[in-house]
Amino acid sequence: MDSQPPLPEMHQPPPSASAAVIDDAAYFRQNEARRLTDLVTSSQSRPLHVHSIRIDGITHTRSTLVEQLVSPILQSETLGDVIAESREACQRLNRLGVFRDVAVTLDTPPRGVEAGGAAGVGRELVDVVLTVKEGPRFYARTGADFSNYDTTTNITTKISNALGGGEYLEANASYAVQPGVALNESAAAFASETGSYFQLLASKPLLPTPRFRRANRADPEARIEVAAYNTNRNAQLHQSHDEQTKGLAVRYKTADPYYGNHEFAYDVAWRHLHNIAADASGSIRKDAGHTLKSALSHSFTRDHRDDPMLPTQGTYVRVREELAGLGGDVQFAKGEAEGQYIRNLGHGFTLSSTLRAGLLMPLPNSTKPIRVNDRFVLGGPNSVRGFAQSGVGPVDKKDSLGGTAYYALGLSLFAPLPRLADKPIKAHFFANAGSLLPSTISTSTTIATPTPTTPATQFSTLLSSPPSVSAGVGLAVRFSILRLELNYCLPLVARAGDRMAGGLQFGVGVSYM
Amino acid sequence: MPWVNPSTKLQNALPLKTHPAVFVPAAWPAEPAGVPILYIFPPSKQAITSVDAECVKYQAFLAFSNYKHTIQECHEPGMSPSGQLPFLIASDGRILTGRQIVEEVKNTAGDLESRLTDVERADLTSFTLLAETKLDFALLFTLWYDNRIRDTVTFPMYEALYPWPLNKILSRQIRAEKTEWMLSRKSVLKRDEILSDAKQALAALSTLLGSQLFFFGSKASFLDAVVFSYLHVILSQLALPGADVPLREAVMRHDNLVQYCRRVFNTFFALT
């Protein structure tokens, strides 16, 4: 009983704060389950060898691949091994993303087998039967999404398991319209189309060779993707231009629910800034034309929140770095980070704090200026509330120019509403602050002489200059895939040029401060 | 007593602290205020005239009119409101293209054609049209469909502007646009027909010029800007060592046109 191999440790979800009352039936079921577990646990070290593995239900998947994934089961020596390895094998099969259902059955081999076994008489043998069910190979979905300034209709078609090894091919198309602008702006100069997006994606799982008694967790789930995309973005409203991007990307992604997800990508993008508005500012007009960005990037995301849309506790970290300039005519290094800490205060109260920061630097020997489509923007219902979309930071006439260094802080208190304590709707009190600076700070209209900036000087300028601040109160509602907010916002501190949006502000989105 | 939204009242009642702007955009154009700027496709290394005929045309017109301005290089037609170079930023900040430039210059620097008779004005219009159709077409065709010119002049000119491989894509894209434009004018592009049209136009222009200083006497007109722009680009851009470019040869046959072109260039665009 002592030398048994430990069962793979599972990550338990944090114990729920509100313990449910256990009724008698549930108590009985729990007892029964425990009895079974005890039985299995107590017989774990019982010697047992696998006679055969049978896999039922495979039609399109390559059988050699499946065989390889389940082969470590054959090395089992005890019942514990058989159970643990079968479970691991099921997980590996699930990682392929092609099976809807994987189940394991242990069976006694047909009579007469043990007698003919050459390996030794008296060995106990077992047959492992894996029953799998392949998911549909062809998949199509149409839908509608909403964000702050537009509604998007999209269509996705996907051929999964294209080559029998979990590879999939996917085509996404989406088309966004701006109903608010179309209805409210009398000027027909704004096209109501805000953007379109098309992507072709081929994705392949990268499977490590499975080994006996090695947990799957040791090798994070990984995929490699190749994508070609074409996007049209309408930035007429705040930046007086349209941007078309055509690109090719290769991405390597790993996913681990505990340690976080990494993505390494190489992206070549041909960007075209066009359709400059007649009344566009000179700063935007100067950036018109074609650029080629060739960039390496890495991003890391770790989401330990209990609910990404309206969390009650947990942490969230996202870091992204990008280096552009391996060929092409765009050269910069960019880093961005976001952290969120959410604390449950009890009685349905939640305190959420968010910090975001970013820095964009031209490469040391680069003469190319950083363009508007690479710079950061700040402000709006999803970042610094109480300001218009991209309304914080440098402006020229009516255009938000974006900046090269920013930080933003958010503190939100969510409180339960009377009679609605168990519904995903909360009262929301917030305070936001943020500052976005251009690379060259000029306070007069004379030509700014670009002074060489280092990350340290940029950050010290950023921290020493007062931020734009707002506070307010409102409602936050969680829907399945997004959060809606309606806030009454009061800008408290602003800079000349900031576009404020005091009063009621409506927010739709998936990522909030 | 006008009704005030209580929300607005509340917003106004609460204090809002305002700091000075973090960034005041540099005046654009970043030049001494009040001097108009002509944005042109970049010139070749040895000259201040653009390699693009349309840009040379306006450069010449501004020079003839004695319109005070500065030149900025720009290779992005997207910067121009019309999507085409050149464009002019007037002293009051308006951005003008094409005919608007002509009007602006006439209004501020005086009309070059005020002294012309009605007959001369009619000639000016018809000969301008002749040059802008026949010579323009022949030049465009030679630039994109004469293999030697295309490979040694036109493609390198556009490909130098962008990084690889974008330059290959964009130069082909420009060629496709130009081809489409030419096909919208002529259903079939015949080398001989285009060249003979140009030759006729050149002969007519040569006759009109005669031995005068400019097409209409001793003062330049818009027609001079137009003809000079094509002649100059043909003579300077289409010069290939050891190869005869038919369009250039056709110009070379008219001595007075060649002399005229050289004289105008030396008078208005010689580097000092």
TrEMBL record, chain A:
<comment type="similarity">
    <text>Belongs to the SAM50/omp85 family.</text>
</comment>
<dbReference type="GO" id="GO:0045040">
    <property type="term" value="P:protein insertion into mitochondrial outer membrane"/>
</dbReference>
<keyword id="KW-0812">Transmembrane</keyword>
<keyword id="KW-0472">Membrane</keyword>
<dbReference type="InterPro" id="IPR000184">
    <property type="entry name" value="Bac_surfAg_D15"/>
</dbReference>
<dbReference type="Pfam" id="PF01103">
    <property type="entry name" value="Omp85"/>
</dbReference>
<dbReference type="GO" id="GO:0005741">
    <property type="term" value="C:mitochondrial outer membrane"/>
</dbReference>
<dbReference type="InterPro" id="IPR039910">
    <property type="entry name" value="D15-like"/>
</dbReference>
<protein>
    <recommendedName>
        <fullName>Bacterial surface antigen (D15) domain-containing protein</fullName>
    </recommendedName>
</protein>
<keyword id="KW-1134">Transmembrane beta strand</keyword>
<feature type="domain" description="Bacterial surface antigen (D15)">
    <location>
        <begin position="161"/>
        <end position="510"/>
    </location>
</feature>
From TrEMBL, chain B:
<dbReference type="Pfam" id="PF10568">
    <property type="entry name" value="Tom37"/>
</dbReference>
<comment type="similarity">
    <text>Belongs to the metaxin family.</text>
</comment>
<keyword id="KW-0496">Mitochondrion</keyword>
<dbReference type="InterPro" id="IPR019564">
    <property type="entry name" value="Sam37/metaxin_N"/>
</dbReference>
<keyword id="KW-0813">Transport</keyword>
<dbReference type="InterPro" id="IPR033468">
    <property type="entry name" value="Metaxin_GST"/>
</dbReference>
<protein>
    <submittedName>
        <fullName>Metaxin-2</fullName>
    </submittedName>
</protein>
<dbReference type="Pfam" id="PF17171">
    <property type="entry name" value="GST_C_6"/>
</dbReference>
<keyword id="KW-1000">Mitochondrion outer membrane</keyword>
<dbReference type="InterPro" id="IPR050931">
    <property type="entry name" value="Mito_Protein_Transport_Metaxin"/>
</dbReference>
<dbReference type="GO" id="GO:0001401">
    <property type="term" value="C:SAM complex"/>
</dbReference>
<feature type="domain" description="Mitochondrial outer membrane transport complex Sam37/metaxin N-terminal">
    <location>
        <begin position="55"/>
        <end position="175"/>
    </location>
</feature>
<dbReference type="GO" id="GO:0007005">
    <property type="term" value="P:mitochondrion organization"/>
</dbReference>
<keyword id="KW-0653">Protein transport</keyword>
<keyword id="KW-0472">Membrane</keyword>
<feature type="domain" description="Metaxin glutathione S-transferase">
    <location>
        <begin position="198"/>
        <end position="264"/>
    </location>
</feature>
<dbReference type="InterPro" id="IPR036282">
    <property type="entry name" value="Glutathione-S-Trfase_C_sf"/>
</dbReference>
<dbReference type="GO" id="GO:0015031">
    <property type="term" value="P:protein transport"/>
</dbReference>
